[in-house]
Structure formats: structure tokens, C-alpha cells
């Protein structure tokens, strides 16, 4: 049986959103997207407060975007303080030309239908 992955965005939910944009050489884009997915599946998703991660690759091959949701800033901060997390971030950054993380809240959602 195949498990369907879903992520939801809810402006009413008290969640923290991390959007991290990695600029990459085109030949490293797939490697970074794969590493982000593997490390998330292998451990990050079990972290307290973790909600979801979506990994996006730009069609021009120059960017990878990591869209992550956490139940609170406190959970996110605790995750970021772990030595394993810092090591993982170094591995991600080694594949990128630049990394631009920022924390967000969801203000509005507009959908068809």
C-alpha cells in the first residue's frame, strides 16, 4: 500500500513556517533536493514539533526551496540547538552557492473553488 504524502497550510493554525532558499549549480540541484528529503525522512520528521517539509526544485536548475512547518517557534528553536542539526545544515550548505532562510507566519490563503 502506498502512503500519500500531504501537507496543509492553515492561516488559523498557530504554526511557524521556515522557507529556506538554496542557490545551487544546476548539476548539484538534484543532489541537494535528495539530501534534504533523505535527512528529513531519516530523522527530522521525528523531532518534537515537526509538522511537514516540502522540497521544491526550480525549473531552471538554480534553486532548491525547503518549506517547513513547525508547531511553534520554541520547537523549531530547540531543534536548531541540536548538534546533529548544525551538522545537517553544513551538509546542505556545502551543496549550495548561497542559503537564505527566513521564518514566517501564514497571513492568508487563496484557493480556487
Describe this structure in words.
- The structure is a single chain.
- The mean pLDDT is 92.
- A 4-stranded antiparallel sheet has the order 2-3-1-4.
- The chain has a single domain (16-104), classed as Alpha-Beta Plaits (2-Layer Sandwich).
- The chain is globular.
- It has 3 helices and 4 strands, in the order βαββααβ.
- It is of the alpha+beta class and 113 residues long.
Summarize this structure briefly.
The chain has 113 residues and is an alpha+beta fold. The chain has helices at 29-42, 73-80, 83-94; strands spanning 16-23, 50-57, 63-70, 98-104.
3D shape: globular
Main CATH class: Alpha Beta
Poorly predicted ranges (pLDDT <50, ≥5 residues)? none
Cα-based radius of gyration, to the nearest Å: 14 Å
> Can you count the beta strands?
4
Question: Based on helices, strands and strand pairing, what is the structural class?
Answer: alpha+beta
Mean pLDDT metric: 92
CATH topology: Alpha-Beta Plaits
Distance separating the two termini: 30 Å
Helical coverage, percent range: 25-40%
Task: Let me know the largest β-sheet.
Answer: 4 strands, antiparallel
How many helices in DSSP terms? 3
Amino acid at each position: 500500500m502506498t502512503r500519500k504524502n500531504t501537507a496543509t497550510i492553515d492561516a488559523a493554525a498557530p504554526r511557524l513556517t521556515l522557507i529556506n532558499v538554496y542557490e545551487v549549480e544546476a548539476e548539484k540541484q538534484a543532489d541537494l533536493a535528495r539530501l534534504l528529503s533523505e535527512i528529513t525522512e531519516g530523522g527530522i520528521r521525528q523531532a518534537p514539533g515537526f509538522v511537514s517539509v516540502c522540497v521544491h526544485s526550480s525549473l531552471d536548475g538554480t534553486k532548491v526551496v525547503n518549506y517547513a512547518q513547525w508547531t511553534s517557534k520554541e520547537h523549531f528553536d530547540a531543534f536548531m540547538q541540536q548538534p546533529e542539526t548544525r551538522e545537517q545544515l553544513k551538509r546542505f550548505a556545502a551543496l549550495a552557492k548561497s542559503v537564505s532562510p527566513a521564518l514566517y507566519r501564514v497571513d492568508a490563503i487563496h484557493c480556487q473553488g
